[in-house]
Amino acid sequence: MSRILIADDQTDVLEALRILLKGEGHQTDAVTSLAGVFQALEKRDYAMLIMDLNYTRDTTSGQEGLEILPRLQAVDNTLPIVVMTAWATIDLAVEAMKRGARDFIPKPWDNERLLAIVRTQIELAGALRKGRRLEAANQLLRGNAPKIIAESPRMRPVLELISRVAPSDANVLITGENGTGKGLVARALHALSSRASHSMITVNMGGLSEGVFESELFGHVKGAFTDAKTDRAGRFELADESTLFMDEIANIPMNQQAKLLRMIETGEFERVGSSKTLHANVRIVSATNSNLHEEVVAGRFRQDLLFRLNTIEIALPPLRERREDIMPLGNSFLRQHATRYRKTLTGFEEKARDLLMQHHFPGNVRELDHVIERAVLMSQGQLVKANDLGLTSGREDSARLEDMSLEEVEAFLIKKALGRFDGNARRAAEALGLSRSAFYRRLQHYGL
Ligand SMILES: Nc1ncnc2c1ncn2[C@@H]1O[C@H](COP(=O)(O)OP(=O)(O)OP(=O)(O)O)[C@@H](O)[C@H]1O
Ligand SMILES: [Mg+2]
Questions:
Q1: Whose CA is nearest to atom 15 of ligand 1?
Q2: Is residue 177 lining ligand 1, measured as CB closer than 6 Å?
Q3: More confident residue, 399 or 176
Q4: Where does the chain hold its CATH 1.10.10 domain(s)?
Q5: CA–CA distance, 378 with 263 (Å, rounded to integer)
Q6: Tell me, which fold does domain 319-391 have in CATH?
Q7: What is the spatial distance between Cα 111 and Cα 242, in angstroms, rounded to a whole number?
Q8: Is any atom of ligand 1 closer than 6 Å to the C-beta of 183?
C-alpha cells in the first residue's frame, strides 16, 4: 500500500481517481490547486504524485503545470511525478518529461493503463533501492563484516543467531556487561544485512542530555530554538534505508520514550519546530548493559518500547564464562598491537597464559585488549611474560588488604567498583549495597 498525491481542479476527476486507486489498495490525498501540491508535500512523504497540467489560467496549454515541474523536482527529486491533461499532445508530453515528469496520462484515461503506470512507477522507485541492496550483498561477499572471534561453546548459539537474524529487518536488542562486544555485534549485524551499502548511524543514548535528545534524534528546523541556526536532519532521518544503532538504550528519560516508541512503530516523526511529518525506513539495533526487564518492573522503562526493541534478543556472556575465547582473542590482540608498535612478539609464556586464563576480567574483552596492549608495550623479548601483563591476582589484592586501615579498604573498594562499572556511580553503589547519597558522601570524603 502506498500513499499517492493527486492534483486536479475538477473534483469529479479526483473522486474517480481516488476510487480507482483505492481498489488497488492505495491511499490518496487530493488537492485542487498547484499551491495545494506544495502544501501537501510539506506535510508528508508520498510514493507518487499524479497531477493535471491545466488549472485556471488558460485551460489548454498546460503551461502552469509545466512551470512547476522543475520546482517540484527541487523540493524532492526522488518523487515520481506523472502528469495528465485532457488535451494530450505529444509535444506536451515530451516537454513534461524533459522537465522531470516520469510518465504521461492522456485524459480521458484508460483505467488499466493508468494502474499499470502507477504500478511501474512505484516498482521502479523500489527497484532503485533494491539495486543498492544487491550492491550490499556483494560487499558482504567481499568480506566487510567485522570478525567476531569466538571458539567457546557458549558463543556458538550466539554466532548462529547473529547470522540468522542479520539479513532480516527485525529489531535486535544486544545485552551484555561492559566490553563484551555489543558494539562489535551491532556492526556485524549491519554489515551482514541488506542495508550494508549505507553507513550505520550510531547514537549513544547515555551521552544525550534531555535538552538535545529530540533534536539529535528527530532533527530541527532553523529557528526552532536559539542555537538552531540552520535546518538539521536528526539521526533517525539519516538512518533512512539503513540501521540506527542506539547504544546504552536504558538511559532514555521516561518522558522521551513515548516519542521514540511512535517513531519506531510508524517510522514517522517531525523535526523539532516543524509540523511536517517525515518518514524513514529504519532498522533498529540497540544495546544495553542493564537488564531492561528489571527496568520495566522498576518503572524506569516502558514495556511497550522494550517489546518493540527486542524482537530478537542477543545476550553476550561475560568473558569469564567463556574462557575458551581468552587465548584466541589474546593472540589476535597480540598480533594487532605488535604490528602497531612494531614489536616482534610471537606469543605468550606459559605463566602469562595461565594468568590470563585465571583472571576474572570484570571489563571483559575490552579489558583483555587493554591488558595485551600494555603488555606489548612493556615486553622486551619474543614472548609476553606474566609480569608484562600487570595483572594482580585476587590473592595479591587480599594480601594488600591486610595491611590497610578500614578507611583505606573502603576507599579501595569504592575505586574498584567504579572501575568495574566504567565510572557508573549508580551501579557501583548498587554493587556495594549503598544508597546513592551514601555513595556520593563517601566519594566526597575520600576525594574521589
Ligand atoms: N568476539 C570478539 N572478537 C573480536 N573482538 C572483540 C570481540 N568482542 C569484543 N571485541 C573487541 O573488544 C572491544 C570491546 O568491545 P565492544 O566495544 O563491542 O564492547 P561493548 O559491549 O560495546 O562495551 P560497552 O558496554 O563498554 O560499550 C572492541 O574493540 C571490540 O572490537
Ligand atoms: Mg559499546
A1: 181
A2: no
A3: 176
A4: 395-445
A5: 50
A6: Helicase, Ruva Protein; domain 3 (1.10.8)
A7: 36
A8: yes
Cβ of 148 closer than 6 Å to ligand 1, yes or no, is yes
List, by residue range, all CATH 3.40.50.300 domains of the chain: 153-315
330 lines ligand 1 (CB under 6 A): no
Q: Which ranges in the chain are annotated with CATH 3.40.50.2300?
A: 3-125
* pLDDT, average across residues 131-155: 69
User: Mutate which of 156, 173, 285, 365 to test ligand 1's pocket (most atoms within 8 Å of Cβ)?
Assistant: 365
Separation of 436 CA from ligand 1 center, angstroms? 29
Parts of the chain belonging to CATH 1.10.8.60: 319-391
Burial of 273 (C-beta count, 10 Å sphere; 0-12/13-18/19+): middle
Residue 142 pLDDT > 50:
no
Residues with Cβ within 8 Å of residue 369, at least 6 apart in sequence? 329, 333
Tell me the pLDDT of the chain averaged across its residues. 87
pLDDT tens digit sequence for 192-206: 998 988 999 999 998
Residues 136/190, Cβ–Cβ less than 8 Å? no
Cα radius of gyration rounded to whole Å, the chain = 30
Ion ligand 2 nearby residues (CB, 5 A): 183
Q: Give residue 144's identity as a one-letter amino acid code.
A: N
- Domain boundaries 153-315, corresponding CATH code: 3.40.50.300
Q: Is 150 in the pocket of ligand 1 (CB under 6 A)?
A: yes
CB-ligand 1 contact for 201 (6 Å cutoff):
no
395-445 maps to which CATH number?
Answer: 1.10.10
| 403-445 confidence digits (pLDDT tens) | 778 888 888 888 888 887 878 888 888 888 888 888 888 888 8
Mutating to test ligand 1, I would choose from 154, 173, 184, 245 the residue with most ligand atoms within 8 A of its C-beta, which is 184
DSSP 415-436: HHHHHHTTT-HHHHHHHHT--H
Q: Which of 84, 199, 72, 81 is closest to 144 using CA atoms?
A: 199
d(CA 342, CA 160): 36
**CA 365 to ligand 1 center in whole angstroms:** 6
Ligand nearest to the CA of 174: 1
- Whole-angstrom CA distances from 354 to 84, 179, 327, 393 are 78, 21, 10, 11
pLDDT (mean) for 319-335: 96
Under CATH, domain 3-125 is a member of which superfamily?
A: Response regulator (3.40.50.2300)
pLDDT band at 318 (very low <50, low <70, confident <90, very high): very high
**CA 195 – CA 240 distance, rounded (Å):** 10
Name the closest-CA residue to atom 7, ligand 1. Answer: 181
